[in-house]
Write a structure and sequence with these properties.
InterPro entries: Memb_transporter_dom. It is found in: Membrane. Keywords: Membrane, Transmembrane, Transmembrane helix. It is a multi-pass membrane protein. The structure is a single chain. With 325 residues, this protein is mostly helical. The longest helix is centred in the last third of the chain and has 34 residues, at 291-324. The protein has one domain. 80% of the residues lie in helices and 0% in strands.
Length: 325
């Protein structure tokens, strides 16, 4: 682990566990959970650049996700408009390449927020405020770290990435259309199977599907195994550990997020599943919802199945095009 990954890991630990600790002490479970999720987004979006650029990138990104969730909430009951919005957001999410780190992630979060809110995931003004508060907490920690401890991290510029995308450095229209169509088909199938939270299926597709076929196949298996292990760990934690102990669990696993992003998608799937599932179940305390864990794994299987179908079809299209050329 590089020194800057240890420093970033500490930021993730503090940013995600402090809200849980606050919620345990104040018995303010819902706000604490969404503060944790807001901190996660801010830490992932952080361009590791100058302070003003960090502030602008994080605040604008988090506000955009909240607005996207609000749009999803307003589209409840308007299925045709919801599908149209999903197609647009999904297409746009599919355009940035992985090297466009900020817009690649933000596009996926915008589509996720729209989808989850439209399909019934909790969304309200108070939750939006809690989400934004968690992001601000993470931003303060980020700025404090930049002041106290200089690292050799490579900064990236959301502005430069944006202009590269505008100039045509994208994944192209085929992938842009395939991504939302796959999400739509998977969400419909999850609804037909009466999955409790079908929106998680779309989330799996957004983060597993990749323009590179070989990488996507590799991500499929890592996502399944990592999610299974993460669900088991989160289940044990929520069932047997007290509320303050859950803050420690989140801190321990969140520490490994920066390292796993570079080193292992399997490890990333594991640690992100543990932290997110513990946070969501924390919002449901004092009873929690342990059945949600098993549904989360089923959602992953459905999502990965549809990613496999999409990969087979797009690979066939590419092979046919190559023969014609």
């Amino acid at each position: 682990m590089f020194p800057y990954e240890r420093a970033r890991g500490l930021l993730f630990s503090l940013g995600m566990s402090l809200p849980i600790l606050y919620g345990a002490l104040a018995q303010d479970y819902v706000r604490a959970a969404f503060m944790t999720l807001g901190a996660l987004l801010a830490l992932l979006l952080d361009p590791r650049s100058q302070a003003l650029k960090q502030m602008a990138a994080i605040v604008i990104g988090v506000l955009a996700v909240i607005v996207s969730a609000a749009l999803g909430l307003t589209l409840i009951g308007h299925s045709q408009l919801a599908i149209a919005a999903l197609m647009i957001f999904g297409y746009l999410a599919g355009q940035p390449k992985p090297e466009h780190a900020y817009w690649w992630l933000l596009g996926k979060y915008l589509a996720t927020a729209l989808l989850l809110a439209q399909l019934g995931f909790p969304a309200s003004a108070s939750i939006g405020v809690a989400y934004f508060s968690g992001a601000l907490l993470a931003l303060v920690l980020i700025l404090l770290q930049g002041w106290l401890y200089k690292t050799d991290e490579i900064a990236h510029s959301p502005n430069n990435e944006f202009f590269q995308i505008i100039k045509g450095d994208t994944n192209g229209p085929l992938y842009g259309l395939t991504l939302p169509l796959t999400i739509l088909a998977a969400t419909i199938s999850a609804d037909w199977l009466h999955v409790t939270q079908p929106g998680w299926v779309g989330l799996t597709i957004l983060f597993v599907m990749h323009i590179n076929d070989r990488l996507s196949w590799h991500h499929l298996w890592d996502r399944i195994l990592g999610t299974l292990l993460g669900v088991l760990i989160a289940y044990i934690a929520v069932r047997y550990i007290d509320q303050i102990g859950l803050a420690i669990v989140v801190a321990l696993f969140a520490f490994w997020i920066p390292y796993s992003l570079r080193k292992s998608y399997l490890l990333f799937s594991l640690v992100i599943t543990v932290t997110v599932m513990v946070a969501i179940n924390f919002a449901l305390l004092p009873k929690g919802d342990l059945q949600l864990m098993s549904w989360r794994f089923l959602d992953t299987l459905i999502g990965c199945f549809w990613v496999a179908i999409a990969l087979i079809m797009t690979h066939g299209l590419h092979a046919r095009k190559a023969k014609l050329d």
